Input
Amino acid sequence: MTQSWQINRRHALRGLGSFIALPLLNCMRPLHAAGAESPRRSAFIYIPNGVNTLDYQITTPGEGYAFSRSLKPLEKHRNSITPISGLHHPGGLGHHHNCQKIWLTGGQLGPTDRNTISVDQQMAEVTSPHTRFHSLEISNKGESLAWTADGIRLPGMSRCGEIFAHLFEEPKSGTVAQRRALRRKGSVLDANLEEVRSLEQKMGSEDKGRMSQYLSAVRETEIRTKRADAWLDVPRPKIADADRKRNDRDVSQTQAGDYFRTVYDLIVLAFQTDATRVVTFSSGLEGQGLAIPELGISQSRHELSHHNGDPGHMEKLTQSDTFSVEQFSYFLTRLAETPDFDGRPLLDSTMSLFGSGMAYGHSHGNANLPLVLAGGTGCGLKHGRHVDLNQGHFEGYQLDTPSHHYHLCSRPANTNAHMSNLLLVMAQKMGVETGRFGDSNSELDLG
Amino acid sequence: MSDSFRVCRRTRFAFCEMQCVSQSRPSSVVTSVVFMLRLSFVLFVCFAGKEFVAGAEPFEGFLAKHCVGCHGSDKVERDLRIDQLSRDFEAGVDGHLWAEIVERINAGEMPPKDEPQPTEDEISAVIEQLDSRVREGRAARMAARPPVAHYRLSRREYQNTVYDLLGVRYDPTQPGELNADPLWHGFERIGSQLSLSPSHVERYYRAAETVLARAFRAAPIEAQTVRKTAADLRYDGGKKQQAYLDRFGIKRPLRALIFPGRLQQAFRPNWFGRTGSEHSGLYRARMQLSGIRPPGGQTAHLRIGKSTGEESNEGLIELDILAPEDEPEIVEFELFLEMPASLDFNVVATNIIDRQKGAHYRNALSQPFYIFTHSSETSLLNPTAPKMFDEEGNGIYSTVLLDWIEWEGPIESEAERATREGVLPPDGATLELVAKHLQQFAQRAWRRPVIQDELRHYLTACESELAAGENVASAYQVALLGVLTSRNFTYIVEGEPQPRERLSDWELASRLAYFLWSSMPDEALFDAAQSGALTGDGLSIQVDRMLADPKIERFIDDFPRQWLQLHRLGMFPPDSKLYPQYDVWLEASMHEEVGHYFREVFANNLSIDAFIRSEWTMANPRLCEFYGLPAPKTSGFERVSLRPEDHRGGLLTMGAVLGLTSDGTRHRPVHRGVWVSEAIFGKTPPPPPANVDPIEPNPPDSPKATIRQKIEAHAQNANCAACHRNIDPLGLAFDQFDAVGQWRTHERVDQGIGHDPPVDPSGTLPDGREFVDVEQFKQLLLSDREKFLRAFVEHLCTYGLRRVLTVDDREGIQAIVNDAKQKSYQLKDIVRAVALSDLMKKR
Output
């Protein structure tokens, strides 16, 4: 990896508009400055429709736990991961597939309940001044896991070639033309804002409805336009040929394994070049989780999850789960073998959360969520244990009596074990100064 | 949706309700409980006074009897005091707790097992009541209108509006363009659903740039015509092949044989030289084609569109090729293309030569030395190649023969150019004149009068561009961009800071135009708004004119798709092993059938009874084949008669409707029931609880059972039965149709002993009326035609008003229903009545 985009700050100031405080461009930071801290990063990976929980559940708490069949591919990362059982989002219970929408927000759902900000976006508020991209949303079907503070879902990119170009390709038009385009865009947005503000003044503070949403969306776009202008003088990172070859291509989603791995490679590359520090990857909408033709699985994850107790379907669901875990394991391996600026593995500076907003898809059971937290020891995480919030609130796992276990996956045994407690801790580790996130009621003990 | 219409029970006295409850309970013990409750009610009234009387809800009896004992003043389990929960459903203060209560009762978790259990009827009633109150409250919040309300245009409306405004074709559904619209029960245009994030703003800006670049090109783009023969397309010029033919003395020209399983090029941008986005536009195609249909096989079907895989493409153009080999036909069509675009030919059939079946087969047929002229000459010309024809000369596969193709474009009509005349100020215009031009453009774009002051900021932007050294045209473009990214363009804005109840004439013009045309008003409608002519006869004249305008096609295209939730068709693609007769062309045909059918009912102003039952449908050859109807002689859709033994007629037994609720492997009676409930009765059943036990699979050693037999468990359990008795029969009536909507008498069951079991489409409606099959079921729906009419009017109003309806709209709806009844339930009259209704004129 060449770090030729490292440039001096004075150079960046040249030609910069006067209207914006210069972002703290991380690429201007000396490579090995004494005391400089490694950036902290987070990735969130969603698998739709829960898992075959009978084959997924780890049954003993603490250290020395035995890996379940589906989680087996993660065994080699035992010291870098923490499987977590027993968490749930209270706002998701009984809300079927909406669980995906609140997975990272901990929000309440319903047509009139606006979602709240997702944890990745809250993190991005802290990290985005340092990076070219605010955050990166990847989603195989276009709808991402990320939600703005106004409760609006961000669209995600799905094609690998598109993601690569977005991150690393210099637009062909050249700096002068881009600067002109940004200037024009800035003044158009400014005029849009002014026009609304003159109406806003005539209205009471309440009942603005869509208008305040419009205002904040346009305002945010304006800030980003200015930031984009500031980044114009910073060349994009040079990508080694091997990496370019591997990532700058379109992989059909019918080649599920190749698709997943290429997406993971792109995330690694984005972190490595500090293009962004926060990434979400939705591997499928609840209704559109990928089939895996290479394993002979032609059904979507949604179809598999409504297995009706059919052993053939359940076996395929387990295979599909294991497959997703394997790809996640690949991601961790790649992070472990890729050095950060300071020479330490990227895995140390990157927290990754893998899992689903559903546990038992057949009946839309949204408790005892399948979650694995990995990496980020440099952010203060410790690993090696199975953190089990069900302990002390039930009579042990009863995988032999599926209906008992399914009940545990539908109704939380430990009603205080909110998933937001985990998201809160992750946000704090990323430098978000807050004591609350979503409906958190405590900080999850991960020490 | 219109569950929000249920009778508002707020003012009913609890007393009446308890009598109802007591009637359904035979036991005298219970009666005494009721008596005590009545007593406590009286006491309560004494303490709580008037407020409680006004707020007494029908479900209070149930709560008092089964819930408040543990969640009330005496005892407070789990911090929940049901007696103190807010009954103000509209404010939605305790909405989530109420939803949780519904859920617990519904799931049978509450009341606990060791407490007295309510009956099925009681559970049913209380869930119905609570759920409908929660929904009413939610609907009111969704329909809430601030003094200035903003309804974002859907992608399709945006597309239509820029076309009508500037004569520009632009496709916002292309990847990277505008974000997909969130749906609410199939509707794309519900204001409270259409929100805005920075990414939307980015995309609107980019869309506006694209649209303006196409409207005002730096240099005009001349249309080009490109012709490719089969020799060019298939044989790289075909010199060698022609020499080969000459050697045999074969006079027939080369033809391209397109077989199912491999795409062939139909359109390449480099045929036109360099082509970027600016070359996007309308292209006209002409091509000479014929088809080969194997005996007993499918009509050759040609699909033209962007490649999506090795053997699949999108269906931009779909053609059934009926012309035989010796009498080729010339097909012409026009197509809007976002350039650069590549299109391919694909023959869609269920029997295809794919890689799995024979890579060698495919390759041999695709080589340049595989030469085709005529079926009678193939074995002579290609002695070693795989056979495409049998000894009698019959085709083995459905194939298409292409002789030549011609493309012309991009084409722009005079009318399109005329829409943007005068938008740009002349060269050397004064600032004053520039401002005037901008004002005129903004009035059309924002669909209302605009004062100069509102455009101040856009003119300032224009001036600062001039100061930055831009020329007038380019500086002015910034102002135009501003007008097109303004909230006044991307949203339909209704109201002013000073609240008012009725729409202004301009707002009414927009509402009508987006209702009937999915686009902005035209000149005549603007003029009518301007001159105050949108009342009384003036309004009727405009609405009648709009109904007769070709743009009504957009309504015919958009409304049924949203009302019937057709986006769900193919969402879970049918398993090709289980349903080998299903393919993408069948799916596209099913989708089109609905539109053609709706158009036919609309154009002839037939009664909406035709949606429930008819003795005809609109079908093309593919559908006729699927439905088992006589093969038509032409390739498009036409009206065909149905006999009773065809088992079709009306929307409910169309392939599209039967298939859209399936999960790809099997039909889902409960989902079908919910769909009927929503689309036909306008009523969304309460959601299922979260922890239902799975339907057990059929054990290999027990007799085969139908899904119907398995879900009969719903009837055994009081908690399930409470809702399912209202839902399931509506879906089970269609049990004679499988997951893709094919008629059947037996259900295919893979595991188990014995024969596949026969299906049973009989059932009992919640009101006790019985039916033996779907025909009788349709008959029962028709005897309730006013119910259907009301639901249909509600769907139309949701679509037209762009919001969820509430109890406050009931009178308005009833007025339309009465009007429509006078007009014999005729479709066009109903749409007209909605357009002319008082409700349409209200904010």
